[in-house]
Every structure is written in C-alpha cells, then in structure tokens.
Amino acid sequence: MGTESLPKGIISTSSNMEMHPLWGPVSENNKSHHPTGLLAIAVGIDQKGLVNQIVKKFLENDFVVMLFHYDGVVEKWNDLGWSDRVIHVSVVNQTKWWFAKRFLHPDIVDGYEYIFLWDEDLKLDNFHPGRYLSIVKEEALEISQPALDPGKSEVHHPITVRRQRSRCHRRYYKFKGGGRCDENSTAPPCVGWVELMAPVFSRAAWRCVWHLIQNDLIHAWGLDRQLGYCAQGDRTVKVGVVDEEYIVHLGLPTLGGFLDRSKEGDMYKFDNRSAVRLRSYIEMGIFRDRWNKAVNEDECWVDPFNK
Ligand SMILES: *[C@@H]1O[C@H](CO)[C@@H](O)[C@H](O)[C@H]1NC(C)=O
Ligand SMILES: *[C@@H]1O[C@H](CO)[C@@H](O)[C@H](O)[C@H]1NC(C)=O
Ligand SMILES: *[C@@H]1O[C@H](CO)[C@@H](O)[C@H](O)[C@H]1NC(C)=O
Ligand SMILES: *[C@@H]1O[C@H](CO)[C@@H](O)[C@H](O)[C@H]1NC(C)=O
Questions:
Q1: Which of 2, 28, 71, 169 has the fewest Cβ atoms nearer than 10 Å?
Q2: How many structural domains are present in the chain?
Q3: What gap in Å lies between CA 141 and CA 82, rounded to an integer?
Q4: Distance from the CA of 200 to the center of ligand 1, in angstroms?
Q5: Best mutation site among 93, 270, 272 for ligand 4, i.e. most ligand atoms within 8 A of its Cβ?
C-alpha cells in the first residue's frame, strides 16, 4: 500500500467534493450536515439555460454539484448565483464517462449515497431530486433513471418511457415481432436496463460501474448492456425506471447527446458526427471483445445471470 510507515489512525482513505472555509467554524465537525447525493453533469455554454434549471433544483435539495465543461468555457457561468457553490472541471472535447473515470473515483465520492451522472439536455419540470431518492430507497434500486415523458422526449429504448399511474417499473413487455419481452424475460433490454443520459447509481453500484468504464473508450453505446452486472444482485429487481418523478430528454446535439440518430445532418459544433459515430461502432466491438476475453481468462468467474 505504501502507507505502512504511517500510524493507522491518521490514514484517511476517502474524500468528498465538499468545500471548506479557510477560517471560521470547521464544517467537517458539523455532523448534522451530510449531502446524500452528488450531481455530476457534462455541460457546454450553449445549454446554459437548461443547466441553470437543473443545477438550481439539485442545490435546493442539498446536493453537491460538479460541472464537467467539455467546451472549455467556464467564466461565462460566473454570473449565475450558484456558480461559486459548484465544482467546475474543464477539459476540452471529453465525454462524461471520461470525466467520471478521471474525477469520480469511488473512494473520492464515497461520502455520497447516490451519484447522478447526467447529460445536460434534460428538462426537470416534473422531477424533484428528494422525492426521487425516497422512491429509489424504498424500492431498493441500485441503478435507476427517471422515466422519460414520451410526448416530448427523444426516446431510444421503450423501457424508459413513463407509465401513467405507476410509481416505478423494472420490466418492459413486447408480445409481437422480434425481440419479445414477457414476464419471464431475465435479460436486457426487457429488464435490467436504464439508458445512459440520466443514470443514478447507489454508492455500491457506482464502485462497480467505475471499474467497468474503460478509460480509452468514449462509451457512446454498449456500456448499458453490462450495467446490470453492477446491480449488486438480481438485475431484474435492483434496476428500475421511476415513473412518478420524470423528465424530458430533449436529444439536443450536445457532446453528451452526440448519438441521436435523428439529428443526422444537423450542424454540429463540437465534433465530426460521422467520425464519432464510426468510432462508436468500432468501440462497441472493442468493448465486447474485451469483455469476452476477460470472461474467458477468468476461470473463477461465473456469469450470475446465466441460468
Ligand atoms: C450544520 O449543518 C446544518 C445543516 O446544514 C446547518 O443548519 C448548521 O447551520 C450547520 N452548523 C454550523 C456550525 O455550520
Ligand atoms: C412464464 O413461465 C411460466 C412458468 O414456466 C409459464 O406458465 C408462462 O406461460 C410463461 N409465460 C410466457 C409469456 O411465456
Ligand atoms: C475540439 O473539437 C473541435 C471540433 O472538432 C476542434 O475544432 C478542436 O480543435 C478540438 N479541441 C481540442 C483541444 O482537441
Ligand atoms: C468527418 O469524418 C469523416 C469520416 O472519418 C471524414 O471522411 C470527413 O472528412 C470528416 N469531416 C470533417 C469536416 O472533418
């Protein structure tokens, strides 16, 4: 470990994202104050209005907020009242997975019960972070997302669509055509699936997901297929979509949303879409090959979901 020369009691294995005053009362000693959640969101200045709405809502609910600036623009956020209360990290042209791998090591964020790793093109008119978390806790969801308002959202996977008069759901049904899903289905995309624009991870699930993220991949697609392995148990039970607190996914051409196929042909500022898309297809194969290689080489590994 390299720490043998230190007396045990002085060793501090974790940290958090909280800010401390340089003088005055020592806030660390204030045991009554423990934010339960961290919101980490990849942002560009073009989405300032949307991000302002999102961040305000989370700060009001006592979250710690971290902004990953992928366009290098930081100062233009300073006029927002909350700007000094959030953590700004700026690295050009990186995706939220890159930021998360680099800056959200599980030991660093161990102080938070839940990690929200979100894109910026979301509208939260019908979403309250505190109520969301109370549902997630009662339902014991380790990996979750708010449902998408289908009328207004860019929807990629039907399991994420909001259901009326439902609190949350874990399963999606499809009785016609290929890829059927019924009450006996045990694998994604029928169960154990959330999309990656607004995932919420428990502390334990995040510890697992962080290890799954490959530093060199942009992870546009494909990661969601394996997420169920981080569900800390049965993925048909511990992964779910919360209907009562729901959001709109706008599917804007942001770095986070760079895969939205419907936006083909739009003008893009941050990257060459066709090149990124090509890279994403290639990466899916790379990730799948790495997974298969790891499975083959690890003689002790047993697929928990293989009946
Ligand atoms: C401790 O935290 C609580 C809850 O946020 C706050 O109301 C209180 O003012 C804090 N006390 C000190 C001494 O900072
Ligand atoms: C699900 O499994 C049960 C028990 O094996 C069976 O009776 C039922 O018909 C199955 N449902 C479907 C839709 O296949
Ligand atoms: C970021 O991407 C833009 C658009 O592709 C490009 O013009 C710029 O040079 C890139 N910046 C860096 C630092 O790679
Ligand atoms: C975008 O990427 C494609 C595929 O790699 C390439 O053919 C094209 O020249 C690139 N366009 C620009 C503007 O860089």
A1: 2
A2: 1
A3: 30
A4: 27
A5: 272
